[in-house]
Amino acid sequence: MSTLNPLNYMPASLSQSRNDRQTIHLPTERETSSIPRGDTESNWEYPSPQQMYNAMLRKGYDDTPEDAVESMVAVHNFLNEGAWAEIVNWERRFSRGLGHGWQACRRGEEGFLEDVDKIANSRDVAAPKLLRFQGRPNEMTPKARILDFMGRMYPAKYGCEPPFDRHDWYVQRQTADGLTKEVRYVIDYYSAPPEPTGEPVFYLDVRPAVDGPTAAAERIMRWGGDVWYRASGAKVRETATQ
């Protein structure tokens, strides 16, 4: 039985060897991600198409079309880059503490995008790093279970397919006082109806896991700040005074 790598809960050695049943060549080059590692000064590397194919066979997906593997790797990498970008946005808001986080959230999502450079430069804090991650596709998050239940009860308003995958990412947060803190993020991966051109559409729900009161406060601040900013007409008032 293969030894599991504790950083990603996958076999420690991902084979680059061509499988006996394989009929076409698959590249063995690995793409370097934009995601910093927590254990080295380098970035995480994505699996090569050959490694992806071997991993899927190991998991029992014997009907995987070989000519689709490279596209699958491209989608996998794209989604993970998107997940990391969302985590970085959370960290930009809250790595300096809840007080700074509220200042970043009080003008909603739109206001944050307008102020992002000012917020990022208000106090220098090192960028987050990914310590380890774990795929948990068979364990729905509490939020996903609630949305699935609401979809069954009110399909016209909440109906959607359950997430096709779930990851837990453990992130090293550098705080304003120079200390580090481990923060667990949960990521639900959803499929959406394809584009008219036939291109697949995905969306991600990325948020800190509620492992304590601080994470709960962060989620409430981000959601509540955006709702209040839009519902109170703050955007209209700001526009009128310009």
Plain-language structure description:
- With 242 residues, the protein is of the alpha+beta class.
- It has eight helices and eight strands; from the N terminus they run ββββααααβααβββαα.
- Helix 3 packs parallel to helix 7.
- The longest helix is centred in the middle third of the chain and has 26 residues.
List the helices and strands and how they pair.
Blueprint: E1 4-5, E2 10-11, E3 32-36, E4 43-45, H1 49-58, H2 69-94, H3 98-105, H4 108-121, E5 129-135, H5 142-153, H6 155-158, E6 165-174, E7 180-192, E8 201-208, H7 213-231, H8 234-241
Antiparallel strand pairs: 1-2, 3-4, 5-6, 6-7, 7-8
Helix pairs in contact: 1-2, 3-7
Number of strands: 8
Percentage beta strand: 15-25%
Share of helical residues: 40-55%
Distance between the termini: 66 Å
Shape, per Cα inertia axes: globular
Topology pattern, helix = H, strand = E:
EEEEHHHHEHHEEEHH
Strand sequence of the main sheet, in spatial order?
A: 5-6-7-8
Radius of gyration: 21 Å
Helices, by number, come to: 8
Largest sheet: 4 strands, antiparallel
Average residue pLDDT: 87
Based on helices, strands and strand pairing, what is the structural class?
A: alpha+beta
Low-confidence stretches: none
For the structure shown, list the relevant keywords.
242 residues, alpha+beta, four-stranded antiparallel sheet, two-stranded antiparallel ribbon, 8 helices, 42% helix
